[in-house]
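# step 3/5: fold
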Amino acid sequence: MNPAPPTPWRPGARKTPRHSPESDAVTTGLALDARGGDPDKTDHFVRALHHDVRRYVTHLSADPQAADDLTQDVFVRALTALPRFEGRSSARTWLLSIARRTVVDDLRRTASRPRLSDRHDWQTAAERSQPTGVPGFDEGVALAELLALLTPDRREAFLLTQLLGLGYAEAAETIGCPIGTVRSRVARARGDLTALLTAADPPPGTLVPG
């Protein structure tokens, strides 16, 4: 069962949770069922969380062209570790933690930092995942393109809580930091995005330089 697409965030709008305890219980159940290696059960588990993982690694790595390979690596790691998964956290939180480590390992291997992809790449990715005509995104500015301008820590916290629907506690567990840090990063990310959308100048040092 694939979760419904999230409602894009815009300044002044309330976040509509994409996930619920019930939906997390379903995906966790799928993970537990797939531990035995049954192909059909494994496929159901992968399909249920594939979209979230791909979206997460795309924004976290800031490289849409690498997203498919990174997503595949995440699930290779996850399926290898799945027999040891005991459901102590939700399968979604567990899988996004693996995704985060996968991206970090990839960045270390290439000795690079999260970077801005060129404008065309971001627009192509945005056209595939974002609806057109969304209020608050004047002149066709895509959310993905705006997120690329945030510092990596704020982008990740915003992505997990505002787009993927994790609670602050889950996001803190995924990132490995205190919950107050997540709240602070999200608040600052929202301020940065609001400044960009209203053509205001964000405070120095809050955005990734071009």
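# step 4/5: annotate
The first helix runs from residue 21 to 34.
# step 5/5: archive (pending)
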